[in-house]
Design a protein that fits this description.
The protein is α/β, with parallel strands linked by helices. The chain has 18 helices and twelve strands. Strands 5-12-11-6-10-7-9-8 form an eight-stranded mixed β-sheet, sandwiched between helices. The protein has a four-stranded antiparallel β-sheet with strand order 2-3-1-4. Strand 2 and strand 3 form a beta hairpin.
Amino acid sequence: MDLHGFLKALARRWPTVAVCLLLAIGAAFAATALSTPVYEARTQLFVATRTGDDTTQLNQGQSFSQARVQSYAAIVTTRQVTASVVKKLHLRTTPEELASRIGANAPLNTVLIDITVRDTVPRRAARIANAVAERFRDVVERLETPRRAAGSERYGKDSSRRGGTLGSPVSLGVTQEAVPPAAPVSPRPVLNLTAGALAGLLLGAALVAVCENLDTTLKTSEALGEFTALPGLGSIPYDKNAPKQPLVSADAHSKRAEAFRKLRTNLQFAQVDDRPRIIAVTSSVPGEGKTNTAVNLALSLAEAGVSVCLVDADLRRPCVASTFGLVQDAGLTTVLIGQARIEDVLQEGGGPLAVLTSGAVPPNPTELLASARMREVLRELADSYEVVIVDTAPLLPVADTVGLASLTQGALLVVRAARTSRDQIRLAAESLERVGVRALGTVFNMAPAPKGDRYSEYGRYGELPAPRASTPRGGAGAPPAARGVGGS
């Protein structure tokens, strides 16, 4: 998935990113609110060398202090310092725990040592910092004080009285005493919320990437065209009103109606040399909109003046009769078992459109649809109508369509956007190929609607004047009926 595809996936799955962002910010806010404020007190010491007034000695002493100061900083958190501070201030903690709250830093090329102490009480943090600095100074000066050799102690009474030690070559002075801090250093609300927002965005982007990699459905007609070698004959936009108004004739100027006109035209140009007259409309699995596609394709052809017969051959879940509000009990199955002739059960669907409903649902639909009688019925309808549209059952769940499709002259495969998986499309196309059915192309159904109304800017472009009420259908004022699939 390239960057452009990833950005489109982010835009399509923005609710996932938004949820992750809100959860991360909420977690950061809760962590901030529940955290105990921590204050930091700071003190600073200066390391000096005891030398004379000679400039050379001063420079040597400065170099000596800079060389030692890094080692001194490591002594701040030792037990020699912390144990004494705990005892002196009567702290309810251990030297090791106190050491974890003490920090020491010696900036490079300086003789300064910065000591910080963190505590939940501002005053106590300052007291501990000053006590640590005082104890640290004593420890360093004691460690730097050299001892005389044992044999030399008898030559100096003063030295023996001092315990046999010389003075320390360094001295530590406090340049800045610790004061109670005014504001806590932790938690930091702005930093926490910013980090939470960033973590939420990264988590959302990661989830989108994972979902896109695991999601094998197709989101655009371009992706469908890249996946399958079948030509894409049409892309039907999603319409939330379609369940209530399945027929595009209810709004002839909608985007959905125009999409079916394009499907009709593309079907015409795709099969110029050998136009099929018996066309099966099928899908991989249920719920992809094959019946709606078959019905509205038949209406679109009839709108262009083509005589069309729509056959409901989905004997598992027939829906054509309910879509048009027709009688379902007498229809295809009635003809197949010899209880009626075709002309006896045909019903009008409007204009030059005739509808052969399914009839009663049989116990053996696969055998009926693959029978020789079914072939005869289709041929009789093809002799009477220019185009026969056959609504069939889905390919993968049942075997009905595999046997029926071989009796037709071509098949349209309906694919639902963001619903049909790549494996389902591949298996459906292979099923048609195995029985020698010519796959005319795909119809990408319930596709994301294009932004804006591309037709409104032209008005009702190409709209023909409405026929006068006094002009009879097919009369002198009517346009001549176009012949063949997709005539216009």
